[in-house]
Design a protein that fits this description.
By secondary structure, the chain is mainly beta. The chain has helices spanning 11-26, 42-52, 202-206; strands at 4-5, 8-9, 66-67, 86-91, 98-103, 106-112, 126-132, 138-144, 164-166, 169-173, 178-183, 192-193, 196-201, 219-221, 224-228, 248-252, 258-262, 278-280, 286-290, 295-300, 306-311, 337-339, 342-346, 359-364, 395-402, 415-417, 425-427, 430-435, 439-444, 450-455, 465-467, 470-474, 478-483, 492-495, 505-507, 510-514, 518-522. A hairpin with a 5-residue loop joins strand 18 and strand 19.
Amino acid sequence: MLRRRNGRWGWPLLALAALAVALVAFYPPGPPLDGAPSPPSAKEEDRRHLALSWPMYGGTNQRNMANLFVRGVVDDFRVEKAPKNVRWVAKLGTNSYGGPVVAGGRIFIGTNNERPRDPAVKGDKGVLMCFREADGQFLWQLVHDKLGDDDTDFHQQGIASSPCVEGEQLYYVSNRCELVCADVRGDPTRKGQGRALWKYDLVKELGVFPCQLAICSPLLVGENVYAVTGNGINVSNKTLPAPNATAFVAVNKRTGKLVWKSSLPGNKVMRGQWGSPAARVGRQMQVIFPGGDGWLYALDAKTGELVWKFDCNPKAATPYRPGGGGERCFFIFCAPVVHDNKVYVGVGQEPDDGPGVGHLWCIDLTKMPANREKDLSPVGDNFDPKAPVNRSSGLVWHYGGPVVPAPKNEDDRDIVFGRTMSTMAIHEGVVYAAELAGYLHALDAKTGKKLWEYDFQESTWCSPYYVDGKVFMGTDNELYVFKAGRKLALPHKIALGGPIKAPPVAANGVLYVNTGSNLYAIAPP
């Protein structure tokens, strides 16, 4: 470091300044030689990359279901009876929750083996498929045997993890509860077959007991890949077989070696751990993962040390009971969304548990815990962020719970916001959030105030997806298209011949819609 002496800078700095002046005089700023365009800035490169790809669940490691860079997305199309604006269609299995993701001219998606690509591969399997982006041609697949019975690997669900792609590697969690790194190019020696570069077996290495299925979509931050292990209960006997097993891991993305692990929340898991982590990028890199006890945990990305935690249930909520009993919720399929120094997340229960009271939370990421427990939760059930008792809380706003006072008309909703399985989309100060019972809510991102609400009159597992001024929202029967904004414009709907459980994604001007059994590329032919 240069030091100042007697009010003057040292001679090395003066010499460097003189050299800089001389260089500018001889080589003044101007266009590159041969009229070549100026090299793009890092931000321009990121923008171009995101316009051409959707390389992970949520697009980036902040998990916001909003694509700000793709233009010209078609929202007038038909897939049945005289298809319109369908560039191509690719056949999947019969269930597909994992993806698609788009990167490097390829599309990756998890499915099952109920419509086999390889006649030699028979029976119930987990399958990761790769297609060519340009025309939907099948390129290769990686196949995984079942882990066990329905308690650990539910039948015909296949691979539910959305992959994460970086360069020539992709990462996903298999139905066997393995963190897998694979080559995006497949196996050059075996046509149609994929090639795993390494696998980290979470059951064998860490004693994890996945509840019915391992689902997490991995997260890449720096040199590590992060994943929720899925450790949970045994549904058959309602016990927690591995209460001390690891719930969250950091693994070196190149070697597949464990870097650190966390057993939070230990024996407090209510059911399963099916959410995916997000990242806060900044001075202190944090990985934020949804725990099976309904708490959100932020860990130091390098060390795994707890930075803060937040209870996403009211303290007075009754304990969860499988089958729809109890009010306490956990995280289903969703990921927290990091946006504008805040994190947004919702909670729910298993879809078989039915609808019920749910909660959305907005948490201030600039607030550091002042207590020994590193707890940023609101005090008691006081959800007023301005209340004196919440001075040390990270609460920005809460949305949900029962309607107070209860409505007099029995046909009116008695719930502000119900249980959710969805990740949120945030764009231009509006949060789009869906609930299992079949409602889409638009909220003010700063205050949590409801802007509008739409009733689909059918349930949904899907997450809203913003792109090109529109919000796409799948339900059990149709795809709805809304005009994005603070005022509700009635949507139009498109029949796709199957439930839309995974959100559509867009890349390179094309919209990709996964119906569970088919993947459609929507764009003018």
